[in-house]
Amino acid sequence: LRVICTTTAVQRKKVGASGPEKYTEAFIKKQIEEFNLGKRHLANMMGEDPETFTQEDIDRAIAYLFPSGLFDKQARPIMKHPSEIFPEQRKIQWGEDGRPFHFLFYTGKQSYYSLMHETYEKLLNVQNYQDQLTAQDLPVQKEKKNLAGSRWLTKIELEEMLLEKLSDNEYSRFIQLLEKLMTLPCSDIEEKYIQKFSKEVSVQLEKTVIEPLKYDERGVAFSTGEGTRKTARATAVVYDNGTGKITVNGIDVLHYFPVLQDREQLLFPFQFLDRVGKHDTVCTVSGGGRSAQAGAIRLASAKALRSFVTEKEVEFMRQAGLLTHDPRVKERKKPGQEGARRKFTWKKR
Amino acid sequence: DDKLLSEPLSHPDFFNVKELFSLKDLFDARVHLGHKKGCRHRFMEPYIFGCRLDQDIIDLDQTMQHLQLALNFTAHIAYRKGIILFVSRKRQFCHLVETTARECGEYPHPRYWQGGLLTNAHIQFGSGVRLPDLLIFLSSLNNIFEPHVAIRDAAKMNIPTVGVVDTNCNPCLITYPIPGNDDSPSAMELYCKLFRMTIIRAKDKRQQSEVFDELR
């Protein structure tokens, strides 16, 4: 009785070292020839000189001849040099007599291990130099470097550099080696080598600058602020030496906001800073509804008040939530549902 | 060409490897020091001279003979332009092994051994790979104190092996074992120096013989 085993899942074959797609050198050469020929044809079609036809001209020509309304830029037709389209491939690693070119070929990951070897050699160099200096009784000191402005290469960037897949363990080992090299006092010798693996990080946070007070013709200090909430946009000008009068779009606040809740919103920043009857406010607001306009004016006046107040009180305002823009907007309605969240009534049968 | 290859085989010590080392050199490099009595492997007992204060001492006369045979064999392989692979799993000597192999023009492998390197080479590397013709083990255990996988794989692929076996190693599958210490830096530097000198000597001799042949 012969039993034949069949599985529904397809057995995974062991994929070769170069990956699923292999491009032979001949294939890539043919692609380059076709590209150059196509470039000349395109130049003739557009009526331009084939000799001085640059990549930008090609992109423009293709966009003109094959207009596409697709949103994804990468889905549109492109015509680029094959070296940019086909990923870099490893050529044959050994010579005619069969001997591999690279001395670490038999390890399997030659670029990664040769990198580790080189880095370790630099480490030994630095240690030797340090020993020499101590033998000659010279001082061993390190200049303070700005460490905050740089970061190491990520695993993906390193993989691209080496053209080899790395595991997380290997990547962390390499970073550990680099860190060790950095911490040594005389590592300035190998500065150039380390810079190959570090990238600069641009300054992320910009502290918001509080504008200074401005003075109008009468000599009264004032300050402007802008605020938004939902679809309402507001600008508020807060004057010093006032009586607590608030004007919105030329209309007094009592008439513009009949509801108490809205007027309380407007009052909140002044109440928080104990400056209720001390400032005059003139605001302009458009868009949104009643509540949204009130919230917008509140944010605008709080921003304007920053110039009148100490830094500590600004921090208190920020923690109270007076200076944060409210990100809540109306959520869109989805198909298959009645509203943004409400689903249609579920009927059992 | 035939004469070029068959001439070295007629002499017992064509490359004169005996002069490269002496018993005193081995003793000074602490090659005779083994592990403690409890770590002793059963098959290493014929190579052990004795035991002092629980530490095994390796018989340096036997080591001399084995070393001479092994160096002679590597010299012949290098003369016939074979690929030599230096294997070691000792992390402290990784850099030393790589630099030695680089200077010889041969190939080191002091890193983690991927499973199918020898047995699955055609899929891992590509179809026309040439496998190494000799494996030299500067330490025949891996980091878990088990025999290195490459010993078994080389035996499977009919690749001869030369290996430094310490008192806790299994010398069975290695074709040319060299009983000796594999833990001290002085001993490892000595081995590296000896292998480097033999390989360079053999390659130079090959070049000379080829030049002589061309002149005729």
Automatic annotation (TrEMBL), chain A:
Subcellular location: Mitochondrion
An annotated Gene Ontology molecular function: structural constituent of ribosome
SUPFAM superfamilies xrefs: Ribosomal protein S5 domain 2-like
PANTHER family: RIBOSOMAL PROTEIN S9, SMALL RIBOSOMAL SUBUNIT PROTEIN US9M
Keyword Cell membrane belongs to the record: no
Keywords: Mitochondrion, Ribonucleoprotein, Ribosomal protein, Transit peptide
Coiled coil: none
InterPro entries given in the database record: Ribosomal_Su5_D2-typ_SF, Ribosomal_uS9, Ribosomal_uS9_CS, Ribsml_uS5_D2-typ_fold_subgr
Protein's UniProt name: Small ribosomal subunit protein uS9m
Region (Disordered): 326-349
GO CC annotation, single: mitochondrial small ribosomal subunit
Top-level taxon in the UniProt lineage: Eukaryota
Family of this protein: Belongs to the universal ribosomal protein uS9 family.
A biological process from GO: translation
TrEMBL record, chain B:
Any GO BP: translation
SUPFAM superfamilies: Ribosomal protein S2
Keyword Secreted: no
One GO CC term, this protein: mitochondrial inner membrane
Subcellular location: Mitochondrion
Top-level taxonomic group: Eukaryota
InterPro entries in the cross-refs: Ribosomal_uS2 (IPR001865), Ribosomal_uS2_bac/mit/plastid (IPR005706), Ribosomal_uS2_CS (IPR018130), Ribosomal_uS2_flav_dom_sf (IPR023591)
Sorted UniProt keywords: Mitochondrion, Ribonucleoprotein, Ribosomal protein
MF annotations from Gene Ontology: structural constituent of ribosome
Family assignment from sequence similarity: Belongs to the universal ribosomal protein uS2 family.
Function of the protein: Required for mitoribosome formation and stability, and mitochondrial translation.
Protein name in UniProt: Small ribosomal subunit protein uS2m
Organism of provenance: Podiceps cristatus
